[in-house]
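protien #1 (seq + structre)
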Amino acid sequence: MVGHMKRRNFIALSGAAGLAGLAGCLGGDGDNSNQLSWHAGGQGGTYYPLSGDFKTIVDAETDYSLQVQSTGASTANVGSLNREEADFALIQNDVAHFAYTGTGIEELQGTEMTNLRGVASLYPETIHVITQADSGIETIDDLEGQTVNTGDAGSGTQVNALQILESAGISEGDFDEQNADFDTATDQISDGDIDAAFVVAGWPAGSVENLATTNDISLVEISGDTRDAVMGEAEWFAEDTIPADSYDGVEEDVETVSVQAMIATHEGVDEDVVEAVTEAIFENLDDVSRKTEFIDVETAQDGMPIDLHPGAEAYFN
């Protein structure tokens, strides 16, 4: 299914300055019992700013405070949850399945992180394949022989990228693979250091928006036979479309695929805590600034690949 993944150590905590606006706790009495660790993703994607919205809500509406950390995203986050170093995290639903069953990704094979629990599905995480407008890359097939950033090593983005390339008949040895976060990848495109990059995030993704304001970019479609092959080999992919004008210079709809973003926790987090956090978020969705057209209590269990935490179940039921 997925090719050979390199093992990497993930750095969960970014610099203190980058977290200053998000980290904090209620009160000021030095009692940390109400602080909950929430692992997000890179600052150039959707996880990090969305987690900032959730922090604002939870801090205001509950007795708890979220400590949001920028991380390597899905694969790093399931490890943090499994080790109970994080109370909550945002992850992809396919990576949740791989982690729970110990399958799919070399980094996760044999681990069977059965203490993971689901909280809620949120929104489609759209596969962006970005290139310069004059690169001559028009289809996934054109990535053969090119230098391609597939995302952080071991990340959900890299997993998705390699699955898509493999479905198109492009093996790991058929292109020069680079690994970096979204912001670095878009800088590499701007500088001409790579030919294309995969970004997996809800549109509009901040790093892609920034690139499009200074460069003429193109988004490569995943459509037709390639999309059929991708979806046929990995059931967690769904059809998706990046609407026209989501990014400067992209004037037509772009057909692609997506996975699902979700909130996860672990079985060691108290039921009352999970229920309080879940209720605060879903009762205050008007205060969420991103992906509001998708995040809804009615769809919060769509595509849930692991057992629901009793606290979340108490709220949704």
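ok now protien #2
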Amino acid sequence: MTTRVTSLFIAIFGATLLVATAHAQQTVLPLWPHGAPEPPMTSDAEVDVTKPTDGLFNGKRSQRLTNVSKPTLTVYSPVPSKDAHVAALVFPGGGYVRLAWNGEGTDTCDWLTSIGVTCLLVKYRVPQPEGSAGHYPTDPADLEDAQQAMRIARAHASEWHFSPDRIGVVGYSAGGNLAVLLSTHPDDAHILSTAAAPDVPTVNGTPRDARPNFAIVAYPAYLTDDPTEKELNPVYTPNKFTPPTFVFQAENDKTYGRNAIVYYRALMDAHIPAELHYFASGGHGFGVHPIGTPAEHWTRMATFWMHTSGILPSENTKPGPVSSSSPNAPTSTGGSPCTLESLPTTNTTPAGGNPAKPGSVNNHTSDPTNPCPQ
């Protein structure tokens, strides 16, 4: 009897492990199969440098990866029933020194796939030199990886079941900087003068388009030149390539707290459709779902923005029951759609810094009478 029970346990456990493993397996592609275009900043092996004293993302410590000299693109596909034919590159933050791989990477993929969006997680090269030498245009490595990831995504769009003209970017902190950079410089041709040029996906000899179709920019860093954060660095000036953009930040982000305001103002000046949310607290680097904070439901706000902006199918915004299988799905009370008055008072603060009406947002594109799930 004991042997039979043990065998049965092993069989069940083995089957469960196979299912879990199969579910976890994803497509992983190198960005540069024949070697990255710039010399590596380190010869050390890739390593997780997470410390017990590191802050938490979404209630847990995230992997912090560094010494990435072989960048990759990992594909996380949604379940077929939720496939919206939309995809997004994800750039984790980490100061261009490391990558917050779970807290701003795989956790983001959990959210995106739950709403039917294919997640394309980019492991871009780090570390880069400190200071201005570590950023484009002095060092083009970050933009090269972002452009290449977008071109690979478009080359595989049919295979991975999304539309080549519905691919966005989601970036945090330094990754938010990279999302803005790709939004403003998708046409930079530096890579074509390097030995890695043959790895660039092309159509009839022309490099594939690297422009994102939408951008979600979380607490961006390095967008301003001066320490007062009053002026946008001209490198990041919105232009004809810049897509509709959703930007958010915490008001008490001590180092980069005005970056989102400055960039949003530039988006408005360039007449780029955009939405800005400022949360009363949260600091810098709060991740995808910071429980118990004003920013706890930013993913629902971003999801609703994608619906109302035409990125996701509009029919999904209709009030009604929502599957409990989606942890970030919008909800309503008593079957009624959410209204501005029904949102928590800890929602957002306008860019001007004055107290907001409960549930109000600084948004120059959305109709404030719309249902507004957080």
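The longest helix spans residues 2-24.
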